[in-house]
Amino acid sequence: MNEYPEKTCAIDRLVRHPKLVAAALSGQKTQQRRDGLYAYPGETFVLEGVDFLVTSVDRQRIGDMTDADAQAEGYPNLAMYRQIILSMHANMEWSDDGLVWVHHFKRQQPE
After folding, report:
1. Beta partners for 101?
2. Which of 6, 51, 95, 102 has its CA 20 to 30 A from that of 13?
3. Across residues 1-16, what is the average pLDDT?
4. Residue 24 falls within a domain, yes or no?
5. Is 4 among the domain residues?
6. Residue 17 to residue 76: CA distance in whole angstroms
7. How many domains does the chain have?
8. Which InterPro entries match (predicted)?
């Protein structure tokens, strides 16, 4: 029995922006927040020929984010994360009570 709802988008759309892809490939990015569920734990996705494993997925209030969370998203701090997210999504308002899905992932090592 899956404890998660049905996915709202395909896993291959989880990390798309070229700068974020580069951050994931370099190991700087290990999390992706989305308003929908894009992957389940144990699923894999590929960025530029490199495999990544989704290690866990959980819900978080956007207001509970820390600088460490923003850094795991590939940004230097929470203020920069917030600024960039709001600039990327026209008419979006930052709501501390808004819930997001946090997709945690790691780069797979070749066997």
Report:
1. 34, 59
2. 95
3. 90
4. yes
5. no
6. 16
7. 1
8. PUA-like_sf (IPR015947)
Mean pLDDT of 94-100: 94
Closest CA to 60 of 91, 34, 94, 88: 34
Whole-prediction pTM value? 0.93
SS (H, E, C) the chain: CCCCCCCCCCHHHCCCCHHHHHHHHHCCCCEEEECCCCCCCCCEEEECCEEEEEEEEEEEEHHHCCHHHHHHCCCCCHHHHHHHHHHHCCCCCCCCCCEEEEEEEEECCCC
Give the C-alpha separation, 70 to 76, whole Å: 7
The pLDDT, as a whole number, for residue 1 is 39
For residue 81, tell me if it sits in a domain: yes
Asked whether residue 105 carries a pLDDT value surpassing 80, the answer given is yes
Assigned token pair, 4: 């998660």
CATH of the domain at 15: 3.10.400.10
Cα angle, residue 95 at apex, residues 10 and 97 outer, rounded to 5°? 85
How confident is the model at residue 20, as a pLDDT?
Answer: 94
